[in-house]
Amino acid sequence: MTEFDSQTVGLADGRKIVIRSARESDAEALQEHFKILFLDGEGMIREPDEGAQSKDEYKLWMKRHLDDPRNLLLIADFEGMIVGTLDFTIAKGRRCAHWGTFGMGVRPGWRSCGIGNALLTCLLEWAVSVPEIEKVTLAVRADNYRAIALYKKHGFVQSGCLKDYLKMQDGTYIDDLTMEIFVRS
Questions:
Q1: What is the CATH number of the domain that holds 97?
Q2: Which residues have C-beta within 8 Å of that of residue 169, sequence separation ≥ 6?
Q3: 69 located within any domain
Q4: b vs e for 29-43, b when ≥16 Cβ sit within 10 Å of the residue's Cβ?
Q5: Cβ 143 vs Cβ 174: under 8 Å
Q6: pLDDT tens, 104-119?
Q7: Per-residue pLDDT tens over the stretch 39-69
């Protein structure tokens, strides 16, 4: 199981959250959190009805994160409510096992107050402590300017672009950017 020591973090608005590893008992709350993120749609790749999964599917997804010490599933907790998540998964295969990718989501109404920054800081500090991890990668919609600015602030650089990756309901296209940071010299 991934070792991550919980951290209490003060937000820009004075509230405090706890960044902690997910527990199996979080499955139902995670399901609700992701439902809210998908319905909001900001920064999401999939449509709202594509994100719905059963509690058992969330438990299985969580188990894969919890069973591999090179994976990480973080929760930003405010008084028992999940307000943000970050999941990191190591790449498959021995030739790719030196890097992994992550996804992050912050609940509407909780954005722009420091949760994403706190989650990302925790991920990078943890990645440095895992000797096998050399590089952290991500994919982000090219129109998600706040997220891109946050990633650049932490030292991520753009490493690729998938042109017209997403086709929106109105017929417009959005690129998907890949970004990365080396956590080892």
A1: 3.40.630.30
A2: none
A3: yes
A4: bbbebbeebbebeeb
A5: yes
A6: 999 999 999 999 999 9
A7: 776 777 777 666 557 777 778 888 888 888 8
What is the average pLDDT across 8-32?
Answer: 92
Asked if the structure places residue 168 within a domain, the reply is no
* 157 within a domain of the structure (yes/no): no
Total count of domains within the chain: 1
| HSE, side-chain direction, 13 A CA sphere, residue 74 | 33
**Could you tell me if 70 and 100 are in contact, meaning their C-beta atoms sit under 8 angstroms apart?**
yes
- Cβ atoms 120, 104 nearer than 8 A: yes
Q: Which domain holds residue 40?
A: 7-137
DSSP state of 51: S
Task: Tell me, yes or no, if the pTM score tops 0.90.
Answer: yes
Cα 116 to chain center, whole Å?
9
**175 within domain boundaries:** no
pLDDT recorded at residue 176: 96
